[in-house]
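Our preliminary data section would be incomplete without showing what the modeling component actually yields. Below, a chain of 530 amino acids is followed by its predicted structure, encoded as tokens that our downstream tools consume directly.
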Amino acid sequence: MTIMKSKLIYIAIMVGLFSCTDQFEEINQNPNNPVKVEPEFLLTTSLRETQNLYGGNMNGVVFYNYTHYFSGFQGEFQRYTYSVSSTNDYWRNNYVRCLMPVHQIVKLYEEDPSYKNRVIIAKIWKAYIFSNIVSVWGGVPMSAALEGTPGVAYEKEQDIYTALLDQLKELAEAIDLTGDTYKANADKIYGGDLMKWKKFAQTLRLRLAMRISAADPEKAKKIALEISRNATGIISSKAETAAMNWGITSDSWSYLYNRVVYNYTANKATIPVLCESLVYHTLPYNDARLPVYGQPAKQGPSIGKYFGQNISYGGGGGYTTRTNPHSLLKQDDYSYIGERFLQPDAEYVFLSYAEACFLKAEAALKGWWKDTNAQNYYYEGIDASYDHYGLSADQATAYKETPGIKWGTETDSTGRFYEFQDWMGICSSYIKANDFNRQIIMQHWLAMPNQGVDAWALIRRTRILEFQPQFATYDGEYAYIPDRIPYPGSEYSTNPLEVEKAVSWLGGPDGLFTKLWFGLPNVKNPNLPH
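Predicted structure:
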């Protein structure tokens, strides 16, 4: 048996047996015969597991319909309820599959100065994963997690953000550019480039600062201004985008390829397709990214056109006099997801150059950036997004001149106002003159399709974009985009005192629609009764 195969089996056994708040024994179980796994293998494992979770099942099942990019995978989450077994799995996978490998790098190598940078990068990646976890659940175990102790303490959501913001600053500054690094084939994101990891940490810090900007504007402003004093210290080029590709073999290819292409026949009734919301935010503006994000319908009433499914599967007809174009349609009657995302070795983006630009634009608009010219960063973000998807500078220029997209201009909807609306006519992508914040947030959202966890956080912290509620809930009512995922049942069984304490911090029940600290309340649609 090869060394690598032994390690794979060992990690698989560890992942399968233990959870974060149950007893997870250290890898060095026998002090007389320690098993010390190489940090390169552990990092690769964590990166791949994180990609598979946030770019895979959790993305398709939970985030697609929460973010209005794609639609499909009918089930509880899609109808704005939830699956207890899935919440258990998502929690466990975050802590065990994603976090535990990098946690072990810290445990095993922190005292060895020859591994200094590799330990720092492991800590940066831990911070990234926790930034996702806290955005999904709220207060969670962080400092005391993964040590194998029962009754592990939860921490408040706002305290976690404070800790992550402090940690990321310290970690970015601590990287020694002349020191050790991961082998290129182990670091699947940056190939061992230390400067890019420094920039990733600071850009993630900016993302988190802007995420809490509604809840704690004073702290957010302070951090954004601090970062702006060294603007070259964040992601500033396409080459610095944090992304990772799946593989071309059956054990490594992408979730979408496996479900939509390879296993199409088995999944035909529930394959994900383009969402209607994405279409009315792109098509009427002649956005050249639409053919990248989706494909023209191959059959049905809109064959040859970009036709998105509404997340309610045609529900909501009782609130409009318009004819329902979704009645009795199948998944194949809609636009498929773009071919770029259906490749076996497709990429998953964790943090992009385009997003860094829009974060700067938003901060500048608020007066929280050293250079307050938000317009320049806004246009830079559009250019970066177009370039990322292989579109030309001329296409980007034409798009930037479109009314509603051009900085400060109003959407030109003369004679075609309905094109900017959902089929019911209750939501619109229309932009008023000088609505700069809506322009920035709309472009930020448009720049990161398939980054479900990030887009969901953006939507909840801004509440600017107009998306149709879910009308196909099991009780027959409609519901707005959920605010969080409930804590898993496994935590109530193994760590009841701490999870109940965390629930008390929420200010509401442990449910989908209890607002998290960082987010804003749902904006009620004025065209619906409440």
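Residues 214 and 518 are 7 Å apart (CA to CA). Confidence is low (pLDDT under 50) at residues 1-34. Preliminary results of this kind motivate Aim 1 of the renewal.
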